[in-house]
Structures are given as structure tokens and as C-alpha cells.
Amino acid sequence: MSAARDAVETAELVRTGALAARDAVAAALERIARLDRNLGAFVHVDADGALDRAAAIDAKVARGEDPGPLAGVPLAVKELHAVAGWPYAMGSVLHADRVADHTSTIVARAVAAGAVPVGLTASPEFGRASFTASVLHGVTRNPHAPELTPGGSSGGSAAAVASGMVPIGTGTDGAGSLRIPASYCGLVGFKGTYGRVPRGPRHRGTAENDHYGVLTRTVRDTARFLDCVCGTDEYDRASLPAPPVPFETALDREDLRGLRVAWSPDLGGAPCDPEVAAVVGDAAKAFIAGTGAREVPAGVRLESCGAAFRTLSVPDVHAELRNAPADRLGSVHPTVRRYGDAAQALDADALVDAHEARARLVEVLAEAFGRFDLLLTPATQAPAFAAEGPMPTEIAGRPVDHWGALAVTFPFNLSGHPAVSVPAGWAGGAPTGLQIVGRRHEDARVLAAAAAFERLRPWPAA
Questions:
Q1: Looking at beta carbons, which pairs linking 327-333 to residues 24 or more positions away fall under 8 Å?
Q2: Which candidate, 164, 247, 259, 450, has a CA 20 to 30 Å from the CA of 11?
Q3: Which ranges carry the Amidase domain (predicted)?
């Protein structure tokens, strides 16, 4: 939607001195001031701090030093990620006055690589919705169709990147919160193998389904960002080592010819809007034909894991609510409040049942990935809905609950598989995405597949 430069292009120009980081950041700040009044992507902007950081990068370049692979790239930070000295409300009135006293590893490593954080982007309260609206910040809108949602919970970052305000924005994905906004906004949203992007410090994550990542307009931007932030972190016991071959390098090395690729519009039973299924199905066929892959039957039927996911997630939300002032609890979003109520009734049997359901899911997917190398599905089952919500209660004529509307995304949070959404086309007045899922730890293959599809179907479509 914008002629704004992508992250890799910006960084290379800044590193060579062809573009001043201060000019790149000033241009981003101008776009934010001009565009965000109608979108509500940002909840905090630190213009002075960003310009000062950019000036320091320019001074490095002038001294002949390399400021890093993300040099001068304006970065939006989802408000669930802490930046020391910035507000840290996490979309909740419970923390409306809180200021962060630490910086999340994902942000600190991006800054060390030369990125310039310009502000915080909106999230629904504690990230617990697939549209981005909160009592604290109001409604965030889709740049392609302002009456529609950009998705959630990383909707603020998605709106900021899709509108061209910034080239890159951090996000989280606990049930699809990177892939859903990517689908609805025509972006790349990659959820790596569990632990791929470190989540320290102070991330609770007792459900072990939260993944950190980034929203970009190109796969190469995503790969470069990952190369800058991945690697073990003593603050995150689940964090994984960086891969031996950088993700950006692997984009051009992976050979997809002959790979066994399966297409499933529904993972064996989830409802999918017919328009979405047709658009994404066509994209899946184009991917298979264009890469020289070999289509094989999916043969996947996942049992409903919504109750298990909710049970495992309850303690994380309870941790935010248990010490909350009583006079503020009434303003908490009903979805969040229901988690709090569920915490009071949680018992050992429910936890055991949830862990057993997760184990069965992992077993089913392990067997499935013995039959194929990549799994293609829609990234969202329904077109983008109203910006104010609520989430769909019916898809393709079938009633769905909260988890039924996320049936193609959250299972891979429970299982920890890498998955990416890439733009597939349009449905219902907004973009819709193709989801590519791979085996755990085969993140490079998933990204290479996304890059191959990007070459086959450049976005935005001509």
C-alpha cells in the first residue's frame, strides 16, 4: 500500500551511507502522524528517542563502523513487549499507568543490530483476542479496509507495517496472533518452532504455546530479523540455538523440488469460508506446480483441542488478574474475565486432560509429517470481520466458538511447529493468507517455501 522501503533495502542504504538513518526514521514518524489518526496502530510514539538513536547510527557510519544488519530500520514494538522507560500496559486498564523497567530480548537484540524502535503498537487486552480493540486504546483498523479488523492480537503492528508507516513490527503468536494479522493485512507472519525466538526476560508462558516473532512485507525482511534476534537466552529456558546457516542465506539454498506437499482446507473438519478455501486452494496449487513439489494426500484429522488450549492458558491470564485492584476488574474484557473465572474452577484432572490432549495432537502430527514434508492450509478460515469485533460465531454456515474460529492456527501453537502466513489473494474485501507448516526445527525450509511462493505470486498483486 506504500512506496516505503522494506527493511533490508533501508538497512543496506544506511550501512553504505546512501541514506541517513535519521531521514529514514523521520519519514516513518511523518507517516505515523499522517496515517495513524485513521488506523489506531500506535499507542505510544517516542519521536525524540527514535531520532536520537538514528543520529547515533549515522555517527557510526561516519566513523566507518558497521551499525548492523538492521541499521536505521524503523521498528514498531507490540505493546506486549517491554521497552525500558516506555508504557507497559499490555492493552489493559489494570496496567494503564505502568512503565517498563526492562527491555524484552527480542527488542534489545534488534536494537543491537541497528533497528530504531519508534513506538508501541496496539494489542487487545493481554493479547487474548483475534481482533485488536481494547477499553484502554480503542479500535485498530485494517489499512486495506478500515471498517474491517487487521486481526489480532498483533493487529497494531500489522496495521503499521501494511500501511507503510514502518517496514517491520514485532508480534506474538499464542494461538495465531502473527499469522492471522498477516493474513488479513497481506503480510508475512512467521511463527517459528517453539523457542526459536527467545521470550525473556520475565515471560511467564506457563502454557508453553507463546511464540515471539515479527510482521513484515517480505520474507527476506523476516529472515534478516530472525537472524538478528534468534539464539539461546538465559532468560528463556525454552530458547533454541541459532541455526548453523543464517535464515537469510537459506532462503536461496533450499531446494523444494520433489518435496511431498499436502493441502488441507480444513485440517479434517474445521469449517472454512468457501471464498477463502477457493482463493487459498488456488494458491496452494500454484505453489506445488511452481516449485516442482509433489502433492500428496493430507490425511489429517485433528481432534478438537480448544478446551485443552483454554485450560493450559488459564494460569497465564490468572497471573495478570490475581493481584489486580478490585475496582478495575469490572473494566476487564469479558474474554479475559472468563479466563479469570475458569482459574477458580481449575483442577488437576483438567490439567492432566489438557496435557494428554496436547500429547495426542503431537503424535498425530508426527505421524502426518512422516507422510509429507510441508502442510498447506488457509491461514484464516473466514474473511476479515468488523474492526470492533466480535469474532465470527459462524463460518460456512456452521456455528463456531472462539477456538473453532482459530482451528487452523492454534494447534500448531500447542505442537510447536513452525508456520507462516503469506499473502494468497483477496476474500471479503481484504487479503487472505496461505499457511505453510513444517516439521519442528525445519524453520529454514518453511521460510524458503514462503519465499518461493512470494516469487511465484508477488504481492501486492499486479
A1: 328/93, 328/94, 329/94, 331/93, 331/135, 332/92, 332/93, 332/94, 332/125, 333/124, 333/125, 333/128, 333/129, 333/134, 333/135
A2: 450
A3: 23-447
Cα–Cα distance measured from residue 224 to residue 18, given in angstroms and rounded to the nearest whole number = 20
CB-hemisphere CA count at 13 Å for 49?
15
298-332 residue pLDDT tens: 999 998 899 999 999 999 899 888 888 777 888 88
Segment holding 420, helix H or strand E? strand 419-427
Element containing residue 438 per DSSP (H, E): strand 430-438
Of 117, 154, 136, 177, the residue nearest 43 (C-alpha): 136
Long-range contacts of 54-59 (CB under 8 A, 24+ apart): 54/20, 54/21, 54/22, 54/24, 54/25, 54/26, 54/116, 55/21, 55/22, 57/14, 57/21, 57/114, 57/116, 58/14, 58/20, 58/21, 58/22
Active site residues: 78, 153, 177
The grid coordinates listed for 74 are 524503523
Q: What is the DSSP string of 339-358?
A: HHHHHHH--HHHHHHHHHHH
DSSP annotation of 266: S
Delineate the domains of the chain, giving CATH numbers in brackets: 7-250 (3.90.1300.10), 260-301+360-418+434-456 (3.40.190), 307-348 (no CATH)
Using alpha carbons, list the distances in angstroms from residue 384 to 183, 423, 449: 9, 13, 25
Query: 197-209, pLDDT tens digit by residue?
Result: 999 999 877 789 9
Give the ranges where 104-233 is alpha helix by DSSP (H): 105-112, 155-162, 179-185, 219-229
C-alpha–C-alpha distance, residues 18 and 31, integer Å:
21
Alpha helices in 303-399 (DSSP H): 306-321, 326-329, 334-345, 348-368
213-268 pLDDT, tens digit each: 999 999 999 999 999 999 999 999 999 999 999 999 999 988 999 999 999 999 99
Using CA atoms, how far apart are residues 288 and 67, in angstroms rounded to an integer? Answer: 40
β-bridge pairing 74-78 and 168-173: parallel
What is the grid cell recorded at 432? 487472505
